[in-house]
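step=encode ok
step=design start
structure_in=
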C-alpha cells in the first residue's frame, strides 16, 4: 500500500504536496510572508544542516531496523515556519524548513527538538493518531511526539556531549532543575534533562507568542485535565510540561521497539501497558515524569491511594450550597500499599465555570498501610454570586505521594433534598372541560418560588365520564410542553398524581399551564383541582 500522510509540527497549516495533509502544531499564521532576517536568527544554514546531520546519523539505522528508509528534506530556502513527517510506503520522511529555523525564538537545541518531534511521529508509538479514511495507524500523536523528543531522542543526540550538557547547570531554571534532580540520580542524566527542558522552553515560548497567551513557565503547570487523550496540538504550557516530563523520565526507551505499533488495538490498555515498559506511567507510580494530564488520559491508574467520599461544609454548616458562599471540602484518603504512603498531598481543580478553588493544595500526614486519614486542612471553594441556582458542579481531585499519583472526580450540587413535599401552586376552581371537538381547557398558574428541581408532580382531580380519555399537557415556563401519561391512573378514583421528569435542575419560577382536551364527543368531565409540587426526598436548588 502506498501511504502518504503528513503530520506537521508547524506554526502555519501548510500542504507540502497535494497528497500530503499537514496537521498544524501551532495556530494558523502568516509568518512565512514576513520571514525573519538571518541576522536575528540563532541558526545559520550550516548549523541547520549540522543539526539534521546529527539526527540522521543516529536515526537512519533505527528506522532501517523497522524496515523503513529515512528521508529528510532540507528546505532551508523555504520561509514556511513549519516541520512535518509523512510516510510513503517504506519511505519515512521528515521535512524541515528554514523559516522555522530562522525564527529568533528558536535556539539550536530547540530546532533539534523539532527534528526529534518529527522523528517521534514515526518512532514514538503509543499514543497514536486515530485511524482516518481507512489508512493504517502509524503516527504518534502530537503530545506523544513531544514526549518522545525529550524522553528518547534528545537523550540519544546529546549523550556524547557531556561537557556541553554540563553548561546547562547554570542555565536551567530552578523548578526544572528540581524536577530533573528528583527523578535522575546520575549527574550526567540530570545535565541532559536540564538541556532538554531548556530547549522545550524555546519552542513553547514561541507558541505562546503566536497565540498571544501568557509565557509558559515550568512552575505553573497546565491545570487542564482531559476526559480522553487529546490527539491534536496542546497549548504552550501543556507542551512545556510535556518536554519536562519526558526529560525527567528515567525508564529507558528501546530504539528497537515502536510501542504498540504492531498491536491490533493500538488504543487500549494493552497498548498502554506496552508503552509503560519504555516510558513513565501513572500506573507505575511516576508523578512528574508521566505524560501530562492536559493532553493524556491514562487507562491504567496508580492504585496506591484511594479517595473516599468528600465531606462538604458551607458557611451555615448545613451542607446546603448557596450562590456567593464559600465551602470547605475534606477528601479522606486510604493507603492501599503494603507500606506507608509518605509525602502525601492533594490538589483540587474546578471544572465548572463560576466555581473556583481558593485553597488548591493541601498536605496529608503519612498514611500507614490500610489506614485512612483526612488532610491537615480542608480545601476552600467559592461559588460565585452569579452561579445558577441549583446547578451541579464538579472538580478533579489529584492525590500524590512519593509512590505515585492518581485523580478522582468530585461532584456536588447547590441545594439539598427536601424533607417534605413542597407545594408550588394550586388551583381549586372547578372548570368544565369542553366537549370534543374543541381546543380544550387552558388553566395557567404562577409559581413564585425560586427553587429548581429535576422532578415535579402534577396533581389532578377530574370527575366525570372516562377522565383518562382526556389529553393532559403541561406547559413549562420555558414554553416546552410535556404530555402527561395518565393511562390506568384514574381506575382508583378521580384524584391522580403524575410524576414529570424535568431537564436537569429546571427553575420552577414563572408561568405554568395545564391544557386538558377532550378527545371524544358526548362525554362530560370537570377539572376540580390542579396543583404542582416537588415531592419529598427530591433534590432541590438554592433557597430564594
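sequence_out=
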Amino acid at each position: 500500500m502506498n501511504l502518504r500522510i503528513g503530520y506537521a509540527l508547524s506554526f502555519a497549516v501548510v500542504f507540502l504536496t497535494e497528497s500530503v495533509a499537514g496537521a498544524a502544531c501551532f495556530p494558523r499564521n502568516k509568518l512565512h510572508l514576513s520571514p525573519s532576517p538571518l541576522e536575528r536568527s540563532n541558526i545559520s544554514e550550516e548549523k541547520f544542516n549540522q543539526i539534521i546531520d546529527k539526527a540522521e546519523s543516529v536515526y537512519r539505522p533505527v528506522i532501517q531496523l523497522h524496515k523503513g528508509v529515512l528521508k529528510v528534506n532540507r528546505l532551508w530556502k523555504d520561509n514556511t515556519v513549519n516541520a512535518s513527517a509523512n510516510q510513503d510506503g517504506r519511505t519515512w520522511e521528515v521535512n524541515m524548513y528554514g523559516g522555522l529555523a530562522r525564527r529568533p525564538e528558536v535556539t539550536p537545541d530547540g530546532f533539534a527538538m523539532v527534528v526529534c518531534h518529527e522523528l517521534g511521529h514515526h518512532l514514538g508509538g503509543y499514543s497514536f493518531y486515530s485511524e482516518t479514511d481507512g489508512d493504517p495507524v502509524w503516527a504518534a500523536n502530537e503530545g506523544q511526539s513531544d514526549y518522545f523528543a525529550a524522553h528518547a531522542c534528545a537523550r540519544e543526540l546529546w549523550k556524547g556531549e557531556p561537557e556541553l550538557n554540563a553548561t546547562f547547570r547554570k542555565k536551567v531554571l530552578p523548578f526544572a532543575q528540581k524536577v530533573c534532580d528528583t527523578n535522575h540520580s546520575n549527574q550526567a542524566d540530570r545535565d541532559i534533562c536540564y538541556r532538554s527542558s531548556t530547549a522545550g522552553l524555546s519552542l513553547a515560548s514561541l507558541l505562546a507568542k503566536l497565540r498571544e497567551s501568557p509565557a509558559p513557565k515550568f512552575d505553573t503547570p497546565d491545570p487542564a485535565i482531559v476526559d480522553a487523550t487529546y490527539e491534536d496540538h496542546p497549548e504552550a504550557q501543556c507542551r512545556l510540561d510535556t518536554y519536562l516530563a519526558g526529560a525527567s523520565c528515567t525508564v529507558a526507551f528501546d530504539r528497537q521497539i515502536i510501542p504498540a505499533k504492531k498491536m491490533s488495538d493500538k488504543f487500549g490498555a494493552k497498548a498502554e501497558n506496552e508503552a509503560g515498559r519504555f516510558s513513565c506511567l501513572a500506573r507505575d507510580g511516576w508523578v512528574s515524569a508521566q505524560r501530562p494530564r492536559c493532553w493524556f488520559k491514562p487507562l491504567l491508574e496508580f492504585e496506591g491511594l484511594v479517595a473516599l467520599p468528600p465531606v462538604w461544609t458551607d458557611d451555615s454548616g448545613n451542607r446546603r450550597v448557596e450562590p456567593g458562599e464559600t465551602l470547605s471540602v475534606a477528601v479522606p484518603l486510604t493507603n492501599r500499599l503494603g507500606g506507608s504512603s509518605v509525602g502525601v498531598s492533594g490538589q483540587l481543580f474546578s471544572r465548572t465555570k463560576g466555581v473556583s478553588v481558593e485553597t488548591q493544595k493541601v498536605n496529608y500526614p503519612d498514611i500507614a498501610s490500610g489506614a485512612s486519614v483526612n488532610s491537615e486542612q480542608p480545601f476552600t471553594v467559592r461559588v460565585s454570586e452569579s452561579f445558577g441556582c441549583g446547578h451541579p458542579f464538579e472538580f478533579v481531585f489529584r492525590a500524590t505521594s512519593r509512590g505515585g499519583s492518581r485523580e478522582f472526580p468530585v461532584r456536588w450540587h447547590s441545594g439539598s433534598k427536601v424533607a417534605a413535599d413542597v407545594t408550588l401552586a394550586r388551583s381549586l376552581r372547578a372548570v368544565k372541560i369542553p366537549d370534543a371537538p374543541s381546543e380544550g381547557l387552558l388553566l395557567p398558574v404562577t409559581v413564585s418560588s425560586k427553587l429548581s428541581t429535576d422532578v415535579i408532580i402534577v396533581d389532578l382531580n377530574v370527575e366525570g365520564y372516562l377522565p383518562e380519555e382526556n389529553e393532559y399537557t403541561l406547559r413549562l415556563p420555558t414554553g416546552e410542553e410535556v404530555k402527561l401519561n395518565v393511562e390506568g391512573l384514574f381506575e382508583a378514583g378521580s384524584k391522580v398524581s403524575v410524576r414529570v421528569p424535568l431537564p436537569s435542575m429546571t427553575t420552577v419560577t414563572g408561568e405554568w399551564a395545564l391544557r386538558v382536551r377532550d378527545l371524544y364527543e358526548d362525554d362530560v368531565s370537570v377539572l376540580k383541582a390542579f396543583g404542582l409540587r416537588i415531592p419529598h426526598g427530591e433534590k432541590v436548588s438554592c433557597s430564594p
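step=design ok
step=annotate ok -> Residues 1-5, 9-27 have pLDDT under 50 and may be disordered.
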